[in-house]
Specification:
Blueprint: E1 3-8, E2 12-14, H1 16-28, E3 31-37, E4 41-45, E5 50-53, E6 55-56, E7 67-70, H2 83-94, E8 98-102, H3 106-111, E9 119-120, H4 127-132, E10 136-137, E11 142-145, E12 148-151, H5 157-169, H6 173-177
Parallel strand pairs: 1-3, 1-7, 2-4, 3-6, 7-8, 8-12, 9-10
Antiparallel strand pairs: 4-5, 11-12
Length: 182
Amino acid sequence: MDKNALMVIAFERFRDEEYAEPKKVLEKAGFKVTTASLQTGIAKGKYGMEVPVDIALKNVKAADYDTVIFVGGPGSHGYFDDPTAQAIAQETHAAGKILAAICAAPSILANAGLLKGKTATSFADQGPNLTAKGAHFTGRGLEIDSNIITADGPAHAKEFGEAIVKGVSWVGGWNQENNGKQ
C-alpha cells in the first residue's frame, strides 16, 4: 500500500501511546507517516516520549495525505480552537478522506463543525463538548461514522490504528458496506 498518513501531535504533552500504537500499525501496513505539530523540532509526550516533528502545522496541505489523525493528550487542548488545525480537518473531511481523532482530540473535530449528527467517542471529559456540538456521543472505545473515526484513549489506540488502515483501504466501498458504522 502506497499511502500517506499525517499524525498531528501537540509539541508538548501529547499522549505517547496514542501516537506510538497507531503509528506502528500504519507503518506495518505500508503507510508513510508524517508527524506535524505547531513547530518543527523534538516534541515531548506526556510520559517523556520524544518525537521529531517533520512539518509545522502551518505548512501542511491536507490534500497530500490519505488520512489525517489528531493525537490526544493534555497538549491537544491547544488545537481545540486552532484555525489551522480545524481547516486541515475540514479539508480532509470534505475530500472524503479518513479523518481520525483519539482521546481529547475529537473536540478539534467537534469545534470544527464536523461531528454534528455523527456518532463519536472521546475521552470522557470531552463528551459534553461533543454533545454540545451536535455529536451522538457514546463513550465507547471506538466509533466509525462515514469517514470519521474516533477513539476514547490509550486502551483503544491499536484498534484505532487498525480502523484507520481498514478505512483508507476501503474508502468508498467500505463506508457503503458497513453503512458508515463499525
